[in-house]
């Protein structure tokens, strides 16, 4: 596999082969050093059509695999991911600047989805339903929906594709992935590993290039049966709208504005530790990270002291150094947003506690109000905006005051408070005394403007299956 990772010229991956025969060649420098690194050949319309045909052909071969054959292939894919974690982690950091230790974690996280679906694929049970009459038998089976189109983001370039394709392969659905322009090499590495694991040709295709060229072929195609997207609300709505004409099944994960509620009886040390884990993961560039910190007014001073002390200890530096916890190399849009959010907050009366000098440095804000960008928008930045509340109902109202509904966090030692809060928060995922509620065995997804559909967990594989009812007259 070393030979693949050392290639200098990359192109789209179609029918288990990388095609660099045509299309525009574009430089792909290392995001961290800004020095020349790779070149990428952009896909043509003809190549997009070939990928679509390849996926359609792979549907037949995948459906002919037994559940146990697919389980073995999924396990082998997970093993190959772990065996090549050093190469993969380096590519992730080179492409998007994530601290190298977190890149290693992303490889393991991705592999865990292949292991999870290796277990789930042998548990897709059909049903036999008792009939009202003795002259009929009623059965239900779950069938693969068909070829899928995935559009994935830059912030978790390996696992965002991995958790989609692992479920799709388990369900016998081939797929085509349009990676973000920032991190195409990571997706190509995943495609190469899937090939080496022994999956049929065309099971996972990766198209590099202009999204208009790719979308113009795949979105109107009746051969593509499902679209799955992780990214912004605007693009998600566009893909949803363009999928209506052919009535494709759609899964959307569109970001969040997660509240992190610390009640008066919370274990403050645990809450502060978990807040640091949640907020500063990937240097703040995570759709599920804590975004609005709601603290009971009676514990504000004590909790603030703990958070500030921990934030000051974070190591900000070169993402290739193992001790680095926050990268100095973040997406330019994230840095612009950080600057705008802090400037807006200060202008409207917020107080800074760390006096950060750069947008990638941690900052803690108090006196935050609902009219500030820090409360209204997903920051994708290492900013901790803190508000206070007096009652549980006030905390719930503040938390739900957003169009998003992806993740929320609750810290309390009271079963009664925990029960009331989790029942009334309008979010798809809730971390109860847990700052990292994301795992392969947990359904991942939101409600409201955060989208719909789930990835991972017991329901994840069913996003790629349709229900077939069979009534047999005896």
Automatic annotation (TrEMBL):
InterPro entries: Ald_DH/histidinol_DH, Ald_DH_C, Ald_DH_CS_CYS, Ald_DH_CS_GLU, Ald_DH_N, Aldehyde_DH_dom, Aldehyde_DH_Superfamily. The keyword Oxidoreductase applies. Keywords: Oxidoreductase. GO terms for molecular function: succinate-semialdehyde dehydrogenase [NAD(P)+] activity. PROSITE patterns: ALDEHYDE_DEHYDR_CYS, ALDEHYDE_DEHYDR_GLU. This is Succinate-semialdehyde dehydrogenase (NADP(+)). Its EC number is 1.2.1.16. CDD domains: ALDH_F5_SSADH_GabD. Belongs to the aldehyde dehydrogenase family. The active site is at 253. The keyword Metal-binding does not apply. It comes from the Bacteria. Residues 29-470 form the Aldehyde dehydrogenase domain.
């Amino acid at each position: 596999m070393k030979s693949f990772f050392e290639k200098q010229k990359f192109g789209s991956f179609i029918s288990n082969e990388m095609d660099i025969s045509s299309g525009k060649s574009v430089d792909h420098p290392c995001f961290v050093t800004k020095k020349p690194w790779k070149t990428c050949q952009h896909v043509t319309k003809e190549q997009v059509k070939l990928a679509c045909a390849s996926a359609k052909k792979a549907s037949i071969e995948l459906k002919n695999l037994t559940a146990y054959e697919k389980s073995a292939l999924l396990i082998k894919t997970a093993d190959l991911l772990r065996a090549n974690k050093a190469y993969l982690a380096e590519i992730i950091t080179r492409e998007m600047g994530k601290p190298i230790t977190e890149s290693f974690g992303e490889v393991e996280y991705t592999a865990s989805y292949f292991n999870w679906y290796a277990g789930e694929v042998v548990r897709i049970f059909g049903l036999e339903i008792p009939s009202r009459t003795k002259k009929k038998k009623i059965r239900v089976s779950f069938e693969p929906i068909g070829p899928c189109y995935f559009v994935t983001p830059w912030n978790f370039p390996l696992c965002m594709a991995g958790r989609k394709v692992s479920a799709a392969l388990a369900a016998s659905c081939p797929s085509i992935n349009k990676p973000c322009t920032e991190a195409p090499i990571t997706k190509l590495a995943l495609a190469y590993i899937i090939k080496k694991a022994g999956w049929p040709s065309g099971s996972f295709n990766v198209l590099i290039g202009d999204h208009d060229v790719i979308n113009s072929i795949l979105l109107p195609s009746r051969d593509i049966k499902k679209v799955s997207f992780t990214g912004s609300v605007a693009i998600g709505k566009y893909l949803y709208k363009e999928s209506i004409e052919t009535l494709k099944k759609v899964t959307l994960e569109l970001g969040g504005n997660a509240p992190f509620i610390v009640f008066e009886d919370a274990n403050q040390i645990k809450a502060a530790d978990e807040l640091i884990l949640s907020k500063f993961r990937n240097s703040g560039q995570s759709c599920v990270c804590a975004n609005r910190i709601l603290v009971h007014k009676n514990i504000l001073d004590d909790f603030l002291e703990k958070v500030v002390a921990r934030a000051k200890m974070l190591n900000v530096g070169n993402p290739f150094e193992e001790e680095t916890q926050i990268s100095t190399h973040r997406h330019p849009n994230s840095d612009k947003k950080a600057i705008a959010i802090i400037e807006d907050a200060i202008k409207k009366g917020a107080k800074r506690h760390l006096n950060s000098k750069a947008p990638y440095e941690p900052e803690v804000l108090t006196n935050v109000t609902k009219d500030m960008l820090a409360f209204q928008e997903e920051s994708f930045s290492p900013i901790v905006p803190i508000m206070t509340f007096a009652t549980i109902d006030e905390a719930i109202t503040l938390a739900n005051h957003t169009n998003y509904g992806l993740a929320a966090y609750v810290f309390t030692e009271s079963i009664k408070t925990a029960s009331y809060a989790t029942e009334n928060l309008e979010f798809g995922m809730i971390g109860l005394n847990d700052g990292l509620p994301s795992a392969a065995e947990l359904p991942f997804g939101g409600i409201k403007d955060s989208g719909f559909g789930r990835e991972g967990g017991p329901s994840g594989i069913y996003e790629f299956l349709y229900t077939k009812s069979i009534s047999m007259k005896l």
